[in-house]
Each structure stands twice: as structure tokens, then as C-alpha cells.
Amino acid sequence: MGKNTMRLTALASLGVVVLTVGGFFYVRALGENGTVAQNASSTPGTELAVSTIQTRDTPAGQKEYANTANGFSLFYPTELAIREYSEAAAGHTISFESENGSKAFQIYIAPYTDSQITLARIKADTRNTASGDPQEIVLQNGTHALIFWSYGGPLGTMRELWFMHGGNLYEVTTYQELDTWLADIMRSWTFL
Known about the structure:
Blueprint: H1 3-29, E1 50-52, E2 62-67, E3 72-77, E4 80-86, E5 92-98, E6 104-111, H2 119-125, E7 130-138, E8 144-151, E9 157-165, E10 168-175, H3 179-186, E11 190-191
Antiparallel strand pairs: 1-2, 2-3, 3-11, 4-5, 5-6, 6-10, 7-8, 8-9, 9-10
């Protein structure tokens, strides 16, 4: 064999190895529905069933976030980064925040066995900072929810939106001035 043949064989072998390794990581990154997960992070060592999917018509300037573990999806502005945290008692927090922190909301999810959201639960979870009477609303997807204000200490007044589904309590929170902005995001919420 000549030197050129040996070089070509070595380059071809290297190319096969690179393609095989690259293919392995690509397939591993695919979500359940065959799309690559984006903007999802998790606590090291925890396995989260989270993916960004395109199953509905995505509005301009937005992405679809889908959480298969808790069975919901929503559209959110593309400039928001997503972070996920495991909490005590099987709770889970998903935060959506712009780079400068001016736009943000979070979703806290926890197992919930009661048949309704009680004022005692609201006071416990908000550390007695809920103000006024919670008002019942119906989300666009037909889910009944409670909406109220709470005082978030240095964060100021917060908009709270709580609802139950599938044995979980969902607590969605944002800054007071982003109330209308969050309402637009919540219009896209759907259970999978």
C-alpha cells in the first residue's frame, strides 16, 4: 500500500468514527416526538421529561415549551431562558426569565390530593402574603383557576395564578406589572 492509500484509509476510518459518535449524541438528544430538546436544563443527576416541540402553530417570536412529565405545554417569548429545579416533597419549579430579569414568570408544580385549593393552602404557600380574596377564573383551556395578588418582599407585589390538574397543584407567579403579559402566555397553555 502506498502512503496516499494509507492516509485515505485513515481519514475514512476517522470520518466513520466521527459520524458514528455524532449520530449517537444526536439520537440521544432527540425528544420523545423526534425533535431536539432546547432551552431546558435540570439539576445534575435528575432526569426530566422536557422538550421543546413544534406540534401547534407557533406564534412569531415564541417557542413552545412542553413538559411531558406533568403533561402540559405553552408558548413563551424566545428571549426567555428556562431553568428547572427539583423542590422538596416532589415539587418542581420551572422559571422563564429574560437575560436582564425584567420579564420573568415561574411555575411551581407539586402533588396535591385535596379536591380544591383552600385558603389555608394559599396562606401557607405565600407565607400569609396573599392579599384580597382570590377570584375564580376559567383559563382558555377550560381549567378553573384562582387568581390573586401576594406581596413578594423585595420583589414587590406578585400576580399569582393557581390551578389543579392530574393530581398536581400549579402555582404560576410573575411581577405585578407583567400581569397582562402573563395572561397572554397563559392563553396558550394546554394539557397534553
